[in-house]
Amino acid sequence: MKRYQGSSTREAWVLCLILGTIMLNFPFIQIFNSSQLFLGIPILVLYFFVGWPLSILVIYLFTFQLGHDEQPRKSDSSDRTES
Amino acid sequence: MISVQTVALTSVAYFALLFGVAYYADRRRAQGRSLISNSYIYSLSVAIYCTSWTFYGSVGRAATSGLDFLPVYLGPTLIAFTWWFLLRKMVRISKQENITSIADFLSSRYDRSATLGAIVTLFAVLGIMPYIALQLKAVAHTFDLLCNPLTIASQPIQTLIPVLPGYIDTALIMALILGLFGVLFGARNLDASERHEGLVAAVALESLIKIISFIAVGLFVTFGLFDGFGDIFENFLQQYPQRESLFRLGENSISFPNWFTLTFISMMAVMFLPRQFHIMVIENSDESHIKKSMWRFPAYIFLINLFVIPIALGGLLLNGGDTTHADYFVITLPLSAGHTWLALLVFIGGFSASAGMVMVSSVALSTMILNHLVMPVILKFKLRMGDYSTVLLNLKRLGILLVVFLGYLYYRIIGDSYALVNIGLISFMAATQFAPAMLGGLYWKRANHKAAIAGLSLGFLLWFYTLLIPSFVLSGWLESDILERGLFGISLLRPLELFGLTGFDIWTHSLFWSMFFNLAAFLTLSFFTGQNDSEAEQASRFVDVFGDVQFISQRQRISRAPTILEFTELMSKFIGEKQANTVISEYLRQSNQEIDQRGNLSDEEIPKLKSFTERTLAGYVGAAPARIILENYLSTRGSKMEDVFDIFGSVTLSRTASREQLSVLYEASQIVAGSNNLQQSLDDILALLAQQFKFDLTVIRFLDEEQMMLTVRSHHGMSSEHFGGSERNLDMKTYIGTAFLSNKAILVNDTEYLDKPESAAVIHREGIKSFAHAPIVLEGEPVGVLSAFSRSAKGIFTDEFVALFNNIAGQVAIAWRNHKQLTGLLEVREQERELQIAKTIQMGLLPSTTPKISEIELAGLCVPAHQVGGDYYDFIERDDGSIDLLIADVSGHNIGSALIMAETRTFIQARSANIDEPAKMLRALNSFFYNDLTRAELFVTMFYLQYHPDVGKLYYTSAGHNMPLLWRKADNSVEWLDAEGLILGIRPEVDFEQRAISLYPGDLLVLYTDGVTEAENENNELFGEEQLQKLILECTELPPEEIINAILQQIRIFTGQHHFNDDISLVVLRILDSPEDDELAEA
Q: So what's the pLDDT on residue B794?
């Protein structure tokens, strides 16, 4: 496989995937699993609806970085018949 | 309440819009300006993930059980991290292999297994049916709701069209319409690689509509009916404090394992649901779109979920906490608030959500059914059809309708009784079963088709047992007996507590068991069973799709190969004539194929064309059917795909080939260098060739220059007198003759096509399948031919092999040259040895001692220039006390001269007793010799003397010989003796003059051959008689031997060489003082 210069970024998705899965699962969410309210909104609901866009932001930054690290190979927009 | 007509009309108008967009997109594509080829459209189309389940079901779920609607969307957000690697890989592979569906993907990865394709298809249809049912249910339900919110059960469709019979409900009409849409855009024509831009455009538009309408209703509820998010939560918690647990996990039905299960299966579902695969992979037009969609798609689902909780809570608040119709709060809220247009928009949004899913799913599934269930049957029974393409297209259309109606059937039987979200999750769990085979196939080369089939089958069995059966029971369609007591009353087999596993929710339980068996079978079989070559090759094509490694295509050839035209005809049958002609000419143009006179490709190009054809067909009918089609086609016309017997071992990378090539060449050169025995070398080279390449016969023939024929010098392998052993005429009628005369290697890869009848007869009689002749060339000229014949394999002579074969022929040439040189050398040595013998013999013919005669002193010496020479001298003592002296020179210094000299000696020795005078002797010798000498083109000069010591008389005669020198001691004068006489061998009869002189004591006579006087120095000056005379005058007092030595010495000094160019012979005679004389003198 080709080595890209920013291979640390390239591998970062594994970390993000694992971190994300942990943070959105037991026991991590147990921290916010209470009946407390914040700004009138239950804290767990708030956690999800703030954490979620944050993880999307991380993906955005990640893809942004990807764009700098490598030029994606464009496949033909027409059907490619020969490999 | 909105009139049926309005709803119907709006729906139709929306349909028309979708149709228009789709049609426009298709037209744009035809013009080559793709409408959908941008990352926005791609991201929107991926949002096909959000179906009516999202649209209506999430709210229902949130209202009844709280936050557990979320994992279904968090999962896809998390998996989106992997897309640049996972999804892109799937896309790259699918483009490369012309994949048409997920079933095709799996079947293609796993040995193009038709069985696997069929299993995946069956399971996919079974797994997705509930999902389609769910969509139909949602659309039909909301349609009815919109028209008649109070009596949900009524049939408003009959109000619209009163003639319709009662059993026709809204869902059926919807199914019809959606099926029609699917047919129109999913199967308008047969399209390679299954891309449908019109369909994608429609789906993207629908995604846009559904998010707009959902956010609209969300805003309306949150900010219209309530005063923002905080207000809704506040109100809700005040009114229903006991339902506060909706906002927490771990209680009620939402356990943590359940949460994880839902996250996991939605991760897998978003990748592997057939419609997701179709939209994300098959319809992807550019890999770079994936990158943007990695965050746009999660953002989309985040936005569409943002208002789920407010709408659910608002619905509960406004409906007095009743959750019965919570699934439809989205539409009932604006409706009951009197915002009918908003409700209509929501209906359109929900309809969009359903329609997109149903259309794409039905298209994807119908492709799978056609390619993996129907095609194999058609091919198996070899149904004869003139033009498959129309049939296939119609079958596909039928398939789309079939899938939609299966969904409808499911809806009619059990769909009504089950919550939307549960139906959806059943499908998710089914899609999850594809995960091990998919991921294993993408990243693990050892994963094989047996493992995939076993894993999938077990996974689906468990899915069916632990999920589908309970759902049948819960819907009342099955007796609850099986749930309580287990299958056959075995409690360990209770579907919800399989093998005694209790304490988990239905999803986690099902996920655990299905994955456990699925993975276990997949891993175990992958570890313990192997792959064949083509499967391994396919595996590496998938796993290494991003690698730099060139795919190793198994070198194969086709016997009785079809022509380009025939391949095109075959394709036309399936994809239509026009399309077939287009792709084939594109292929030929792109690959710059050279076409020979027969309108055909070379032996090595044909298999490439075959796999191109297969791949192209795979784009229409899937990999497994395409393979079967090609195999059937080839077998009907008697062609066979043969593994080209790999001339260079099992792997044919060119690098490896050159290494193998080198090693064979190296061995051949070792053979040549290591042996002096030509026959041995040739035999060994042929044996090496035969052994390395499994030839049945290898032959080396060399040109026999006398007969102008190629005669066998060595052969290895099968022996046949008329074949391996016989010589060949040198003409262009045979291949071998052509190879020799044109000095070019001739290859025949398939002996079924031979154009030289003379050769063909022999070749066919011997059952030869392929052969090669390479000229053995020495310094540019052919000297022979190296041939190899195979009875078993065709098409073995690749370019690499030919290069090698020529090189080996070169080695044979070297062996031949070495042999020739060596033979020459040996001959010379032998000759020299013989000459040495001759020399010894010849020297033995010369007198070894001088006669002891008291009156004279004698010495003689002959120094031949070469081993043998023509000089001869002799002394013959006679009984009367006289002595004959003779010196002769036979022209030339070769064996012939030596023989003549020997003959001369024999004659003289034999006849001297009878012939007592020199002149008579020469005369007799001449007549005896004349014929021999004339025949040998030789002549002899000779000086013959006879000295009578008693009287001091010397008789002499000459046959053209150099004049001897006589030194008279008395007056220190020199005389040259001469007599008339012709050289021997000129005339048959010659008279020789005989003269006589007297010799006195002290006189010195020197006889010599022309080697003395004609010795030449570097200035081309001759030694000459004068110098000889001068020299003799200086050493008259020396003994005869020393005089000879002095003369030789002087000649050496004169010529500057130790070696003489001509034979030199000298005889010196001195007359001694007689004792009587001495006494007299003293007296």
A: 72
Does B719 score more than 70 pLDDT? Answer: no
Q: Which residue of B has its CA nearest to A27?
A: B256
Distance CA B212, CA B44 (A): 12
Kindly list the domain boundaries of chain A, sorted by start residue. 8-67
Note whether B4-433 and B849-1082 share their fold. Answer: no
- Strands, E assignment, B808-960: 856-863, 871-877, 883-890, 940-948, 953-959
* Contacts (Cβ under 8 Å, ≥6 apart) of A61: none
- Please give the residue that has the higher pLDDT: either B542 or B456: B456
CA nearest to B93 within chain A: A83
Q: Which of A2, A16, A56 sits opposite B298 (nearest CB)?
A: A56
Q: How far is B350 from chain A (nearest CA, A)?
A: 23
User: Which of A40, A44, A75 comes nearest B95 by C-beta?
Assistant: A75
Q: Do B82 and A17 touch (CB under 8 A)?
A: yes
Contact A55 B244 (CB under 8 A): no
Tell the burial category of B740 from Cβ atoms under 10 Å away from its Cβ (0-12, 13-18, 19+).
buried
> Vertex B112, ends B111 and B116: CA angle to 5°?
95
Looking at domain B654-823, its CATH superfamily turns out to be: GAF domain (3.30.450.40)
CATH level 3 topology of B4-433: Sodium/glucose cotransporter (1.20.1730)
List Cβ neighbours of B663 (8 Å cut-off, separation of 6 or more).
none
Structure tokens at B641: 């795909």
Please tell me if residue A83 touches chain B, with a CB cutoff of 8 Å: yes
For the domain made up of B849-1082, give the CATH fold.
Answer: Phosphatase 2c; domain 1 (3.60.40)
Chain A nearest-CA residue for B238:
A40
Are the CB atoms for B785 and B740 separated by under 8 Å? yes
Burial of B935 from C-beta contacts in 10 A (0-12 / 13-18 / 19+) = exposed
Place of tokens 């009743």: B322
For residue range B623-666, list pLDDT tens digits in order.
777 777 777 777 766 665 554 444 443 333 343 455 566 677 77
Task: Scan residues 17-76 of A and list those with Cβ closer than 8 Å to B.
Answer: 17, 20-21, 24-27, 29-30, 33-35, 37, 39-42, 44-45, 48-49, 52-53, 55-57, 59-60, 62-63, 66-67, 72-75
A63/B292 touch (CB, cutoff 8 Å), yes or no:
yes
Best residue in B46, B295, B308, B585 to probe A by mutation, most A CBs within 10 Å?
A: B295
The confidence score (pLDDT) of residue B468 equals: 82
Q: Do B230 and A30 touch (CB under 8 A)?
A: no
DSSP B338: T
DSSP3 helix / strand / coil % (chain B, rounded to 5):
60, 10, 30
d(CA B945, CA B709): 62
Of B97, B259, B546, the CB nearest to A25: B259
For residue B236, what are its two tokens?
Answer: 């809700």
Distances (CA, A) of B997 to B618, B915, B978, B981: 122, 20, 11, 17
Contact B456, B433 (CB under 8 A): yes
Tell me: pLDDT of A22 over 50. Answer: yes
Residue B417's pLDDT band (boundaries 50, 70, 90)?
low
Contact B291 A37 (CB under 8 A): no
Check CB contact under 8 Å for B247 and A35: yes
pLDDT digit string (tens) for B180-226?
A: 888 887 777 666 555 678 888 888 999 999 999 999 999 998 898 88
Question: Closest residue of B to A75, CA-based?
Answer: B286
**Cβ-Cβ contacts under 8 Å for B124 (sequence gap 6 or more):** B102, B103, B274, B365, B368, B430
Residues of A with Cβ-Cβ distance to B294 under 8 angstroms: 59, 62-63
Query: Are the beta carbons of B941 and B872 closer than 8 angstroms?
Result: no
